[in-house]
Amino acid sequence: MAVLKNTKQRGAIMEILRNSADPVSAEEIFDSLKNEYPNLALSTIYRNLERFSENGMVTRDVFNDGVVRYSIAEEHHGHYLVCTQCSNKIKIDDCPLMRLEQGLQRDTGYEIEGHTLTIYGKCPDCLRREQGAREPHEKQGE
Amino acid sequence: MAVLKNTKQRGAIMEILRNSADPVSAEEIFDSLKNEYPNLALSTIYRNLERFSENGMVTRDVFNDGVVRYSIAEEHHGHYLVCTQCSNKIKIDDCPLMRLEQGLQRDTGYEIEGHTLTIYGKCPDCLRREQGAREPHEKQGE
DNA sequence: CTTCTTGCAAATAATTTGCACTCCA
DNA sequence: TGGAGTGCAAATTATTTGCAAGAAG
């Protein structure tokens, strides 16, 4: 695969990725950079993001709104327990999938490369709040 | 929310969803039905799928190829082993997460509601194809 | 200099929407 | 009958691609 040359656009895109905690879309990157690089092309961003993700430097994810967002690969490890109300997240360290994966590999002939796992629930705070809201006379929207 | 009237298109779409083990896209449903209903419109399918999913009858998922696929909500518990090359899917029946979830519930105070799990890898066919394509002068470093 | 990159414009692909007509309840 | 549902065509949105000009090594 071709060598990645070092251009200022490329650097700028990488910097945005590095500086943002959450995954960002091509368009968001474009907006962030259009002042500094007035004739930066959106296609340049798409092409770079694609290249980054091929190289494993960046993780590509399709969100439920159908938009693809990217984030630095480092940040993207582990599994989470996320609250369906407030989106509060707890990292899950125990991952019981190795065993399962070994079995699958044997049974299906697949070469397992990885997995995604997210568990959803309500966090204690939201549960409490819900209890409170359940009082006979107190009905409140959220 | 408006009452869902009973039309043959609507029934046919539902039937497809019910009869398919894996999630299906609007286009796939369209293809399956275009013989039986020559002037069925794709937009009708999109609109119905959207309505189904609003009503909770059907689950909507955006896949990595950016295409939205739908499946009957019942089937909801089921995890997949998907090939990173050809997207071939195998359903995983064993789900080792109950135990983990019980532990988490105790440890974190979350009330667990569900989870998503997908395992990625290369299917036997793609592995074979890859072997074949591997050129004589192989590169060592990885 | 030669390959990798970029910008621009045009092309796709999936999905959505406006509108007039049709059909179920 | 009246509103829900449909087909069709045109509109949107995110992303991709071809190509000539420009920069990096």
Q: Biggest chain pair contact, residues each?
A: A-B, 39 and 38 residues
- How many β-strand stretches of chain A? 6
- Record the strand order, biggest sheet of chain A: 1-3-2
CATH topology of the largest domain in chain A: Arc Repressor Mutant, subunit A
What's the CATH superfamily of the largest domain in chain A, by name? Winged helix-like DNA-binding domain superfamily/Winged helix DNA-binding domain
Oligomer: homodimer
CATH hierarchy class name of the largest domain in chain A: Mainly Alpha
Low-confidence stretches of chain A: 134-142
Helix content of chain A: 25-40%
* Strand-residue proportion of chain A: 15-25%
String of helices and strands of chain A: HEHHEEEEHEH
Structural class of chain A: alpha+beta
Q: Keyphrases for this structure?
A:
3-stranded mixed β-sheet; Dna Ligase, domain 1; 142 residues; alpha+beta; Arc Repressor Mutant, subunit A; 5 helices; homodimer; DNA-binding; 3-stranded antiparallel β-sheet; 2 domains
Can you give a write-up of this model?
- Two copies of one chain form a homodimer.
- Chain A folds into two domains: 1-76, Winged helix-like DNA-binding domain superfamily/Winged helix DNA-binding domain (Arc Repressor Mutant, subunit A); 77-142, Ferric-uptake regulator, C-terminal dimerisarion domain (Dna Ligase, domain 1, 2-Layer Sandwich).
- The first copy, chain A, is flat and about 50 Å long.
- The model of chain A is unreliable at 134-142 (pLDDT under 50).
- In chain A, helix 2 (26-33) crosses helix 3.
- Chain A has five helices and six strands.
- Helix content of chain A is 39%, strand content 23%.
- In chain A, the strands form two sheets. Chain A has a three-stranded antiparallel beta sheet with strand order 1-3-2.
- With 142 residues, chain A is of the alpha+beta class.
- Chains A and B meet through helix 4 and strand 6 of A and helix 4 and strand 6 of B.
- The structure holds a DNA duplex (25 and 25 nucleotides).
